[in-house]
């Protein structure tokens, strides 16, 4: 596995004072490094028996779609409430300053489905934990979670009820 730290730009005090934002733009600008990251994620994902990959908007799409393609699986978009057409399955969850709702298309998830969740970054784990709840509510099973970055100080992995993997570990 490659050392990807040089492909993460740290922006202090964004989006508000005290936050140290981890920007993946340098990785996305380097096609070779991005391909290597997807390949490293695929090596992890290939060890899991899944029916599809799912990820939250928007950066979960950035990693999830090429990963799903690489392992020969489909991708399910998880979006904020009201962004998907047709019937959806939703989960409302608490965030730092209130609540949010995440949804997936109802037709895409069947009881017994095996899912890998993918996102760019794990912080407190709220969104990914909500997705686990959402999939479990319809009888699907999250067989693993893969992120590019894990902010270890925030202990988000502690709220996830599925095997968790990340390519980069750093303090928040």
Could you characterize the architecture of this molecule?
The protein is 26% helix and 37% strand. The protein has four helices and nine strands, in the order ββααβαββββαββ. It has helices at 25-29, 31-45, 59-70, 126-137, and strands spanning 9-12, 20-23, 52-56, 74-80, 88-95, 98-105, 114-122, 141-151, 164-170. A seven-stranded mixed beta sheet has the order 5-6-4-3-7-8-9, with helices on both faces. A hairpin with a 7-residue loop joins strand 1 and strand 2 (20-23). The longest helix has 15 residues, at 31-45. The radius of gyration is 15 Å and the shape is globular. The model has no long low-confidence stretch (mean pLDDT 95).
Care to give the gist of this entry?
This protein has 172 residues and is an alpha/beta fold. Helix content is 26%, strand content 37%.
